[in-house]
Write a structure and sequence with these properties.
Blueprint (H helix, E strand, L loop, with lengths): L1 E2 L2 E2 L1 H9 L6 E3 L15 E3 L4 H12 L12
Parallel strand pairs: 3-4
Antiparallel strand pairs: 1-2
C-alpha cells in the first residue's frame, strides 16, 4: 500500500481497470484500505510463503491465463 511514502492506490485502480488481478501486502490495518478495494485480497505483514502462495492462487484462480506450474 505504501512504497517510499507514496500510496499505491492509483496503480491498483489501473490494474483493476485493465482486469489484472492483484493482492495488497501491508503492515497497515485493513481500515486503511479504501472501500473500493475491500474485495481485494490482503496479506498482512509479516506473512509466511505458504500464505502468500495460497492468496496468489485465489487471486489468479479464475483468470484465463491461469494454469498450474506442473502443467507448464
Amino acid at each position: 500500500i505504501n512504497i517510499a511514502g507514496e500510496t499505491t492506490y492509483s496503480v491498483a485502480d489501473v490494474l483493476r481497470a485493465r482486469g489484472i488481478p492483484f493482492v495488497f501486502a501491508t503492515g497497515y490495518s485493513s481500515d486503511r484500505i479504501p472501500d473500493r478495494f475491500k474485495d481485494v485480497a490482503t496479506l498482512n505483514k509479516p506473512f509466511a510463503f505458504k500464505t502468500f502462495e495460497k492468496t496468489l492462487r485465489r487471486a489468479l484462480a479464475d483468470r484465463p491465463c491461469h494454469r498450474e506450474a506442473s502443467a507448464a
